[in-house]
What we know:
By secondary structure, the protein is an alpha/beta fold. It has a single domain, classed as Aldolase class I (TIM Barrel). Helix content is 48%, strand content 14%. The chain is built from eleven helices and eight strands. The protein has helices at residues 5-13, 26-37, 59-65, 87-99, 111-115, 119-131, 144-147, 150-162, 181-198, 213-227, 241-255; strands spanning 15-18, 51-54, 72-77, 104-108, 137-141, 167-169, 203-207, 236-239. An eight-stranded parallel barrel has the order 1-2-3-4-5-6-7-8, surrounded by nine helices. Strand 6, helix 9 (181-198) and strand 7 (203-207) form a beta-alpha-beta unit. Helix 1 (5-13) packs antiparallel against helix 11 (241-255), helix 6 runs parallel beside helix 8 and helix 9 packs parallel to helix 10. The protein is globular and about 60 Å long.
Amino acid sequence: MSLPRERLVQLLTLTDLTSLELTDTPETIAALCARARRPDPTDSGVPPVAAVCVYPWLVKVAAAEVAGTSVAVASVAGNFPTGVATIAEKVAETEQAIADGATEIDLVVDHVAFASGAEQALFEEVAAVRAASAGVRLKVILETGALGAPERIRRAADLALDAGADLLKTSTGKGHPGASPEAAGILWTAASEYAVRRGRRVGVKVSGGVRTPADALTYLEQAETALGAAATPATFRIGASALVDALVTALVTARRP
């Protein structure tokens, strides 16, 4: 599928360029940030991506590298990718990341505890991190591929939103099934109904397995339908570093005579 340049560029501006590997170093994150600032090195007219997403201990590096640009700095929190940590530990990790320059937090909830019946614990951990991150965009990772059942995904989504999440994120992309249109649809329904009920617009971030422009377009169109308007970085994100390469390749190909 060949997408118009406008769509390819739009998708880039809605993508979080992520590196969450144990081999990450200040040097690899600096290179990631350079790519985020200018995704297409052959075309200065292509705008930056929405954000870089890194481990907490590399937030300072990322913040310095993107200073003065529109690129946000997102830090994972909650003992990524497991989500197994105390509330105090999750709050402390969040507070340190923000102190180091993070403007967004991607919080992993303990989906195993939730699936075992500890529903209130999910609400409490999101609420505690929300209280510690005022003014910072909070994306809550629900690991929908592990939760499985639609009603379980919806319940987790409702709890996260009621606790203060700004965006619901499908997955960590580590060890469990990633994004699916079905799971994203459940999150969008929860987000849409929450906005009507509470008067606060929230959104969705799809992550895990989104690799091609066609994949990304499916989710973008889903977002536009749910929002009834154009998607913005405040309401829709894609977490897919491989997608950036695919979008840039498509842009370069489209420029060829």
